[in-house]
């Protein structure tokens, strides 16, 4: 089967769609990590996502091609954007969506993750979306269930759909990813978003820089295929895209920064720091934002520079595409 390509918002007719009663050609049962995907896999997801962007902007947003299937959102960590977008994506495709409240579930009573997995498996869902504080927990769960498992963030490890929606946002803004210079700035050490984006951008031919204070930069970060910088002015020089990250205080067990005001002074994005980038640079942030800590409010709200709300929009489309491609694989 030929790989579908983006073309005026439509997908090439060679893409077989599960909703039409045809088995998907996507070669994976689960979506656990960007590292598992080939360039062709990523291109296929982005191409299909583009069709959902167009549908979601139309008057009739529903296309119940997965009617009768069930999605369980199992989030052991708080989430607004990711869980809501998976719920919306599923409902627009006719999926029955169940949001489990982990705080009031049996896990709060001492049930193990594997027991929870086996219990859910006995209910025969078609998809389980999982967010968990421990790296590798989602992969472990995927080995114990028959349905498709989607990683919505596991510890410091990965957040694959975030990287995919970021890639779609960049592609729609620039028309390409290959050859661009992208600076990922902030709490690199604790960020699964950074790790997934680094993996994806490298696969797609971008040049990746990471900018952070030494306390928030992983050891041997160069082995990930990035150029490390410890000063914003140097790291942002002549870049095409700036991707800011949230300070993940919930994962910090020590004093990684002296104060938020000092952090903003040196590493918070404002117009002065951004001025050394290319003239058409744009700014991203996975959310939630800490305004005045990671990014200046005026810049975050500047529709000529910020694509933060575009990222939210792309998130629904990407998650629709992922559900479609993983359908009928259990």
Summarize this structure briefly.
The protein has 330 residues and is α/β, with parallel strands linked by helices. It has helices at residues 39-56, 81-92, 113-122, 137-142, 160-174, 192-203, 232-235, 260-267, 271-274, 297-300, 308-326, and strands at residues 70-75, 96-101, 127-132, 148-154, 181-185, 207-211, 227-229, 241-244, 282-284.
Give a structural overview:
The chain has 330 residues and is α/β, with parallel strands linked by helices. It contains eleven helices and nine strands. Helix 5 (160-174) packs across helix 6 and helix 5 packs across helix 11.
Structural class: alpha/beta
From the alpha carbons, calculate the radius of gyration and give it in angstroms.
20 Å
Average per-residue pLDDT, rounded, comes to: 89
Unreliable runs, pLDDT <50, ≥5 residues? 1-22
Q: Write out the strand line-up for the largest beta sheet, numbering strands in chain order.
A: 7-6-5-8-9
Q: Give the helix level as a range of percent.
A: 25-40%
The biggest beta sheet is recorded as:
5 strands, parallel
- Element-level helix/strand string: HEHEHEHEHEHEEHEHHEHH
Large-scale geometry: globular
Keywords, separated by commas or semicolons:
14% strand, globular, 330 residues, five-stranded parallel beta sheet, 9 strands, disordered N terminus, alpha/beta, single chain, four-stranded parallel beta sheet
């Amino acid at each position: 089967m030929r790989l579908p390509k983006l073309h005026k918002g439509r997908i090439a007719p060679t893409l077989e769609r599960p909703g039409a009663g045809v088995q998907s050609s996507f070669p994976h049962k689960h979506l656990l990590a960007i590292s598992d995907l080939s360039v062709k896999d990523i291109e296929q997801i982005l191409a299909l996502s583009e069709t959902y962007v167009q549908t979601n902007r139309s008057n009739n947003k529903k296309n119940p091609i997965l009617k009768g299937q069930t999605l369980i959102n199992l989030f052991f960590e708080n989430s607004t954007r990711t869980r809501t977008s998976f719920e919306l994506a599923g409902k627009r495709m006719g999926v029955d969506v169940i949001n489990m409240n982990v705080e009031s579930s049996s896990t709060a009573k001492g049930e193990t993750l594997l027991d929870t997995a086996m219990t859910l498996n006995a209910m025969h869902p078609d998809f389980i979306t999982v967010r968990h504080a421990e790296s590798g927990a989602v992969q472990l769960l995927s080995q114990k269930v028959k349905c498709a498992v989607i990683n919505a963030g596991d510890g410091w490890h990965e957040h694959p759909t975030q990287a995919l929606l970021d890639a779609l946002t960049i592609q729609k803004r620039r028309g390409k990813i290959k050859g661009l210079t992208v600076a990922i700035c902030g709490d690199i050490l604790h960020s699964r978003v950074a790790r997934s984006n680094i993996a994806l951008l490298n696969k797609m031919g971008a040049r990746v820089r990471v900018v952070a204070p030494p306390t928030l930069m992983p050891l041997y970060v160069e082995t990930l295929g990035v150029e490390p910088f410890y000063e914003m002015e140097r790291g942002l020089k002549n870049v095409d895209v700036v991707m800011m990250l949230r300070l993940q205080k919930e994962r910090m067990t020590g004093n990684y920064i002296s104060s938020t005001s000092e952090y903003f002074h040196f590493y918070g994005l404002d117009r002065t720091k951004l001025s050394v980038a290319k003239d058409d640079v744009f700014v991203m942030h996975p959310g939630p934002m800490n305004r005045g800590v990671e990014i200046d409010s005026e810049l975050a709200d500047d529709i000529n520079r910020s694509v933060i709300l575009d990222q939210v929009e792309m998130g629904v489309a990407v998650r629709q595409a992922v559900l479609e491609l993983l359908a009928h694989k259990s």
